[in-house]
């Protein structure tokens, strides 16, 4: 599908950070950005000590309650400071902090698998179980639901994470309100709400003249406010996580099916950081190239 580039008309409406991979995120009013993305984003993850895989809600059969857990920092993370501890509220109401001596035991008991809470800072991983080999590299699993048009159907596959990170693909994910509105038009019964898609940046592009406008920005650099510059690298392919229940959002496989049928399974775009800085809600977004 070819798209022409149009002027960006909009501003940042939401900013999000996800301190522990595959747990619910926290909305921000401002966010510090470095070449590694939003500071503190996906800085922690759980490692399954039995098979060495990074715990991911992309495989809900193995981790059925992970996406009902919420993690927040005890203090705001800063780029030049050590990573602060996190507080995790598990699906059964149990709360634990990463500084507690029984943290891993509590997480393992509630989640039903032996796990270790690991962290990454400045590209260095810590907390990796000593039982894993020195050649260990971060991998996770993804379940592909039975949706026509996906690369696999009703299957679980492995995928590697970028070295030194707990990201699936890229450091920044952006989606526009125009894209979510267009998908809702295509499937009015569906709730295409921001938390389903786990972006870092939501951009109000209600005046966009085309569907899925952010995909026309691929290959371009955008300015977010006065400081941050992002290079849009590729469309974001979606997975089973968009269909899972969270909060009052119901399980709905048709969310993913709609994206597959009408936009090749893409919702939003990935970006790399050209220049870091601070961004905030209300910041204008424009082309910078």
Choose one word for the global shape: globular
CATH class wording: Mainly Beta
Strand fraction equals 25-35%
Sheet of most strands: 8 strands, mixed
Number of domains: 1
Mean pLDDT: 94
Distance between the termini: 23 Å
Specify the oligomeric state.
single chain
The helix/strand order is EEEEEEEEHEEEEEHHEEEHEEE
Q: What structural class do the secondary elements suggest?
A: mainly beta
Residue windows where pLDDT falls under 50 for at least 5 positions: none
Describe the fold and architecture:
The chain is mainly beta. The chain has a single domain (11-118, 138-287), classed as M1 Pyruvate Kinase, Domain 3 (Beta Barrel), CATH 2.40.33. It has four helices and 19 strands. Strand 1 and strand 2 form a beta hairpin. The mean pLDDT is 94.
């Amino acid at each position: 599908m070819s798209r022409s580039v149009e002027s960006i008309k909009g501003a940042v409406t939401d900013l999000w950070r996800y301190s522990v991979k595959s747990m619910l995120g926290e909305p921000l009013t401002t966010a510090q950005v470095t070449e590694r993305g939003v500071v503190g984003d996906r800085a922690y993850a759980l490692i399954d000590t039995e098979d060495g895989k990074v715990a991911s809600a992309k495989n809900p059969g193995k981790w059925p309650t992970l996406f009902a857990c919420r993690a927040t920092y005890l203090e705001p993370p800063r780029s030049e400071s050590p990573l602060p501890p996190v507080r995790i509220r598990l699906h059964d109401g149990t709360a634990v902090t990463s500084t507690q001596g029984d943290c891993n035991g509590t997480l393992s008991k509630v989640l039903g698998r032996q796990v270790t809470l690991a962290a990454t800072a400045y590209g260095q991983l810590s907390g990796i179980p000593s039982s894993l080999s020195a050649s260990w590299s971060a991998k996770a699993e993804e379940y592909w639901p039975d949706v026509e048009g996906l690369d696999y159907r009703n299957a679980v596959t492995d995928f590697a994470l970028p070295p030194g990170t707990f990201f699936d693909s890229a450091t920044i994910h952006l989606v526009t309100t125009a894209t979510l509105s267009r998908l809702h038009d295509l499937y009015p019964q569906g709730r295409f709400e921001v938390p389903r898609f786990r972006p870092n940046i939501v951009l109000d592009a209600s005046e966009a003249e085309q569907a899925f406008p952010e995909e026309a920005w691929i290959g371009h650099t955008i300015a977010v406010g006065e400081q941050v510059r992002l290079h849009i690298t590729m469309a974001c392919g979606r997975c089973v996580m968009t269909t899972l229940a969270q909060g009052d959002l119901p399980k709905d496989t048709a969310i993913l099916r709609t994206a597959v049928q009408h936009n090749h399974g893409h919702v939003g775009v990935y970006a790399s950081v050209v220049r870091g800085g601070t961004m905030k809600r209300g910041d204008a977004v424009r082309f910078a190239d």
